[in-house]
């Protein structure tokens, strides 16, 4: 069958989602909502009147340039749009039969609770109910007690940490370091030779290349201009941007290559009018050590910068001009300009979406939104030889429950009735736009495996003259990329509908946890947070039940049954064989047991205030939660708040094995591996029960994140780490993380399966999950932030005609206890020419894949080998392009494909990241933590994590909603007269130049004097001036886009903290030996030349 024959027109199931309005989503940036989750299912109340015909897609002039370039065969909906007959179609969306419209699904749309107010008084002021404390005198040595006993003498308080933690430096950061060598002499406001801003020399040299739809034959090599300057004609819809390749000049010491006067992009292609020329079309100046730097962007005239870092001095007498190599900022800005203004419609197969840094709206017209699925390549090679030759990874980054911005329609809920969702008989793919109906509508042929399946009588519908069902646009499953199915009992574990899930809070009450304040903070916060448990209908109370456990080296369970006057504690001190000492009264409804729960939460901090118990267990804590869920026969989530290495005698006991001497050796991998197998076994049991574990760590020293993280990362959970937690400076971050974590949308007991067309299959998976076979990704919990990256390999040939199809189906239990399927469909093009592959890749997604691949490889290989193989693969990718797609030119030139021109700079950021090339100050726990964190990141998160966002605040226009254009992550780009905001998804820094304008400082800090700025502040003063307001808004909106709350750090230039900040200036040489961008590019060039020779 040919999916291209399926017309796809814009069918916006047009209504904005009721219930979505009003949900505050400050600063939505295509990523996360701050908390809560999107409305799930709007009733499809779109009978005729609501049906809106989309733009005239599929015939005639297409709305976007990209479409205009596309040859007919690559449209995803090339047939004339279907029109009138369906204008008045019956809204059969959720009905089982075509003529029996049903009411909309019963699920109501949802709006979102506001975040609970910050609980101001931390634990120290928490009120304790006077009466009940008495009955709480302490844990008893055995189960079944009520409380009147003094705290049970505990193990020797021998190992008290001495003194307060050293600093409040955030956990992921290196500790305090030696003062930096003096910054080299600044030359502020230097005005160097003007560099290209936007206007480029007119592009010359390339003969006009009209589009040849369906053009076959070798790419341009045969007919290119002397310089390999552009790709072949667009046989398919490549990015609608200039196709200039990127050619670097001869490296120092090599004979100069031709200079790029003749280098150019192709002439504007049809439909390309209006795109600004690419900055990087012309490289080629080699200049001496930079005397200074003038910003490459208009409006940034004054970025004086110190001379090139002395560190790079040994390199060569001449160095590449950083302005002549591809600039991430320029690429990001070009994409915003080119793709940010129009909605991205998903009806065109193989069309690469805008970059993650571009704000855009998505319209689902038959393929999943890029918010759900991003691919490394939108033009897959037809066969494995091509794939192998190019070395371009074929992968998709899938975020099944991604939140959508308010102006996009969440997936509809489809109900096929008692027989369940309609599927292909053979491969079991779910009904989707890639199924081709035939025989008057009685059968359909599967787009994945070609098998023909009978249409159930109650789903029958006639076909129109184009072969399409006349109800096509009334049914999300026939016309949209993403939707949900209601399932039947057959889709439930043990053929039984699930119970509503439960949340269990397990709080470490050992000495360290009490002392650092977390016990009090958690208990205080839960009193309000419990009112904001996830729910699908805002008007109805959450179905989720809650339970509470505290622990040190023993566990305390609490009976909080509504009928009790006071909570009751039951102690389990035999942790070797964990069991739950009570069933009735442990898991309760918040509203029913509110009084008892509040009483408990008031008393816990008081009860353990004077504890001298320093030892903790950890394995039994998770076991306890797991057993409780088992006993209640439900799935759920454990929230574990833990402070120290679990050294108490118990299953899963750990020892301190931190050994930095292993770093860089062949044994380094053992540091990333769990030290005992206990947690792997436990994780497997948790997955079987649907028990997801979220771990909040508050360590003052090594806690072995690599081992403690096994269960969270195998169950779809999250790890949060607050090293040297101090309430005054870290509480805000922790509480925001906790609130978001508790409130966010989450599915339980999830199984994800990715089906593909014959010819390729999903072979490898990356993320936080468990797999007991080679196809099913099992996630005890799947929340709206989690992604799974899937790699595909050929097992046969693909055809250009049909493209490559994938369908991701996630079966999960919703927070209300319904068993559902989330379906995402994605079709990409296939190509028999390498040039087409290289024209339609997405580098940010490739980097996401490479990072995850590399971060997993450190478990089995020395980091040096991992780095080397990354460099090698990247070099092969670029060498293959050079050899097969670029025209012959001097070996002294580096030629990069347009859509991969940032591959070297981003890859270098991965290579020198703390996991792969740590500085001496990066702890093993930090590396394990980051390794696990990256494994679940989506593309937007991995992008900003590896290439932080750096904003020059002196350019901020308070009158405008627009942000100033970012600058490249290099010290050279910083002006001593400026103030910059840097964020990477985990941290926000405010860097203040020593000569920052007084007015700027006055507006931000309320003082004109640099020396008066307090570097310890974690929030900016709320000053009554437009600049202060706008800046604080920006910080809030940046925070709202990320899944983790970012603490603000103020860094004064030349202060000791500046070294930490400089770690994030990723284009520069790093302390740990990581290469600068310029140096790495030269290195990459050398590697490519070696491969080609
Ligand atoms: Zn099939």
Automatic annotation (TrEMBL):
Residues 101-120 have a biased composition (Pro residues). Residues 843-942 form the Sec23/Sec24 helical domain. It holds the Pfam family Sec23_BS. GO terms for cellular component: COPII vesicle coat; cytosol; endoplasmic reticulum exit site; endoplasmic reticulum membrane. Residues 964-1035 form the Gelsolin-like domain. It comes from Cyprinus carpio. Residues 498-742 form the Sec23/Sec24 trunk domain. It is found in: Cytoplasm, Cytosol; Cytoplasmic vesicle, COPII-coated vesicle membrane; Endoplasmic reticulum membrane. Keywords: Cytoplasmic vesicle, Protein transport, Transport. Belongs to the SEC23/SEC24 family. SEC24 subfamily. InterPro entries: ADF-H/Gelsolin-like_dom_sf, Beta-sandwich_Sec23_24, Gelsolin-like_dom, Gelsolin-like_dom_sf, Sec23/24_helical_dom, Sec23/24_helical_dom_sf, Sec23/24_trunk_dom, SEC23_SEC24_subfamily. This is SEC24 homolog C, COPII coat complex component.
């Amino acid at each position: 069958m040919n999916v291209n024959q399926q017309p796809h027109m814009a069918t916006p199931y047009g209504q904005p989602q009721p219930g979505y309005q009003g949900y505050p989503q400050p600063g939505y940036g295509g990523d996360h909502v701050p908390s809560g989750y999107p409305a799930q299912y709007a009733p499809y109340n779109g009978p005729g009147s609501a049906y809106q015909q989309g733009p005239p897609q599929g015939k005639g002039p297409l709305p976007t340039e990209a479409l205009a370039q596309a040859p007919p065969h690559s449209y995803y909906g090339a047939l004339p749009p279907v029109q009138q007959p369906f204008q008045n179609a019956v809204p059969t969306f959720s009905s089982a039969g075509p003529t029996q419209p049903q009411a909309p699904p019963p699920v109501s749309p949802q709006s979102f609770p506001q975040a609970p107010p910050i609980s101001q008084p931390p634990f120290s002021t928490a009120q304790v109910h006077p009466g009940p404390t008495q009955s709480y005198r302490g844990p008893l040595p055995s189960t079944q007690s009520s409380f009147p006993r003094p705290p049970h003498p505990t193990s020797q308080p021998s190992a008290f940490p001495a003194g307060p933690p050293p600093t409040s430096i955030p956990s992921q950061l290196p500790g305090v370091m030696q003062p930096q060598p003096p910054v080299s002499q600044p030359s502020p406001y230097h005005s160097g030779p003007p560099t290209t801003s936007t206007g480029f020399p007119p592009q010359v040299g390339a003969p006009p290349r009209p589009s040849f739809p369906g053009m076959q034959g070798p790419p341009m090599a045969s007919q290119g201009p002397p310089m390999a300057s552009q790709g072949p004609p667009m046989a398919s819809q490549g990015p609608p941007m200039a196709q200039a390749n990127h050619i670097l000049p001869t490296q120092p010491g090599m004979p100069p290559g031709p200079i790029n006067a003749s280098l150019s992009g192709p002439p504007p292609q049809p439909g390309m009018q209006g795109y600004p020329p690419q900055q990087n079309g012309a490289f080629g100046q080699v200049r001496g050590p930079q005397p200074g730097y003038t910003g490459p962007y208009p409006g940034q005239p004054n970025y004086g910068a110190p001379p090139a870092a002395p560190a790079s001095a040994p390199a060569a007498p001449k160095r590449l001009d950083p302005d002549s190599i591809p600039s991430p900022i320029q690429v990001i800005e070009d994409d915003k300009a080119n793709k940010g203004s129009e909605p991205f419609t998903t009806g065109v197969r193989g069309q690469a979406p805008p970059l993650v840094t571009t704000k855009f709206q998505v319209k689902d017209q038959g393929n999943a939104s890029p918010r759900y699925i991003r691919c490394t390549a939108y033009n897959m090679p037809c066969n494995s030889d091509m794939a192998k030759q190019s070395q371009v990874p074929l992968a998709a980054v899938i975020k099944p429950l991604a939140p959508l911005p308010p102006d996009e329609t969440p997936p509809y809920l489809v109900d096929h009735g008692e027989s369940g969702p309609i599927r292909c008989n053979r491969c079991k793919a779910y009904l989707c736009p890639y199924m081709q109906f035939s025989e008057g509508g009685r059968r359909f042929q599967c787009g994945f495996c070609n098998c023909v399946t009978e249409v159930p009588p109650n789903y029958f519908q006639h076909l129109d003259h184009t072969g399409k069902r006349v109800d096509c646009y009334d049914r999300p499953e026939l016309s949209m990329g993403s939707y949900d199915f209601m399932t039947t009992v057959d889709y439930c574990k043990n053929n039984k509908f699930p119970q509503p899930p439960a949340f269990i809070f397990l709080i470490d009450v050992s000495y360290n946890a009490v002392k650092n304040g977390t016990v009090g903070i958690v208990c205080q916060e839960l009193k309000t947070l419990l009112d904001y448990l996830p729910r699908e209908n805002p008007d109805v109370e959450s179905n989720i039940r809650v339970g509470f456990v505290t622990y040190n080296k023993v566990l305390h369970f609490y009976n909080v049954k509504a009928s009790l006057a006071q909570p009751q504690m039951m102690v389990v001190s035999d942790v070797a064989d964990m069991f739950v000492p009570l069933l009735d009264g442990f898991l309760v409804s918040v509203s029913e047991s509110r009084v008892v729960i509040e009483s408990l939460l008031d008393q816990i901090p008081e009860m353990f205030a004077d504890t001298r118990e320093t030892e903790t267990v950890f394995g039994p804590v998770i076991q306890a939660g797991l057993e409780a869920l088992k006993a209640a026969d439900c799935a759920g989530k454990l929230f574990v708040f833990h402070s120290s290495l679990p050294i108490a005698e118990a299953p899963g006991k750990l020892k301190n094995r931190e050994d930095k001497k292993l770093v860089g050796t062949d044994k380094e991998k053992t540091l990333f591996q769990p030290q005992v197998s206990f947690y792997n076994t436990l994780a497997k049991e948790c997955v079987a029960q649907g028990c997801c574990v979220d771990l909040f760590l508050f360590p003052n020293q090594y806690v072995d994140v690599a081992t403690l993280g096994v269960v969270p990362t195998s169950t779809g959970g999250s790890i949060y780490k607050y090293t040297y937690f101090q309430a005054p400076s870290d509480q805000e971050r922790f509480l925001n993380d906790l609130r978001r974590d508790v409130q966010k949308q989450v599915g339980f007991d999830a199984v994800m399966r990715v089906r593909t067309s014959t010819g390729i299959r999903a072979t490898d998976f990356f993320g936080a999950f468990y797999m007991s076979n080679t196809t099913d990704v099992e996630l005890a919990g799947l929340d709206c932030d989690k992604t799974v990256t899937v790699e595909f390999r050929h097992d046969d040939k693909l055809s250009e005609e049909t493209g490559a199809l994938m369908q991701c189906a996630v079966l999960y239990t919703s927070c209300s206890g319904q068993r559902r399927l989330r379906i995402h469909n994605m079709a990409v093009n296939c190509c028999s020419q390498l040039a087409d592959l290289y024209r339609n890749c997405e580098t940010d997604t490739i980097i996401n894949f490479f990072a995850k691949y590399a971060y997993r490889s450190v478990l089995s290989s020395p980091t040096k080998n991992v780095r080397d193989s990354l460099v090698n693969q990247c070099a092969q990718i670029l060498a293959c392009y050079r050899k097969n797609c670029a025209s012959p030119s001097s070996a002294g030139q580096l030629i990069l494909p347009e859509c991969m021109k940032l591959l070297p700079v981003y890859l270098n950021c991965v290579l020198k990241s703390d996991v792969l090339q740590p500085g001496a100050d990066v702890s093993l726990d930090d590396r394990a933590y980051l390794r696990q964190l990256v494994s679940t990141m989506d593309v937007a998160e991995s992008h900003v994590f590896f290439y932080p966002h750096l904003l020059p605040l002196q350019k901020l226009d308070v009158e405008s909603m627009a942000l100033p254009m970012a600058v490249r992550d290099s010290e050279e780009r910083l002006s001593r007269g400026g103030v910059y905001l840097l964020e990477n998804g985990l941290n926000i820094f405010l860097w203040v130049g020593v000569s920052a304008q007084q007015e700027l400082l006055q507006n931000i800090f309320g003082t004109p004097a640099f020396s008066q700025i307090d570097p310890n502040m974690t929030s900016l003063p709320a000053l009554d001036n437009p600049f202060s307001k706008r800046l604080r808004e920006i910080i809030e909106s940046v925070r709202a886009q990320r899944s983790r709350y970012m603490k603000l750090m103020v860094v004064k230039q030349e202060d000791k903290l500046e070294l930490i900040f400089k770690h994030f200036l990723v284009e520069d040489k790093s302390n740990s030996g990581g290469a600068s961008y310029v140096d790495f590019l030269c290195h990459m060039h050398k590697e490519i030349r070696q491969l080609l020779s």
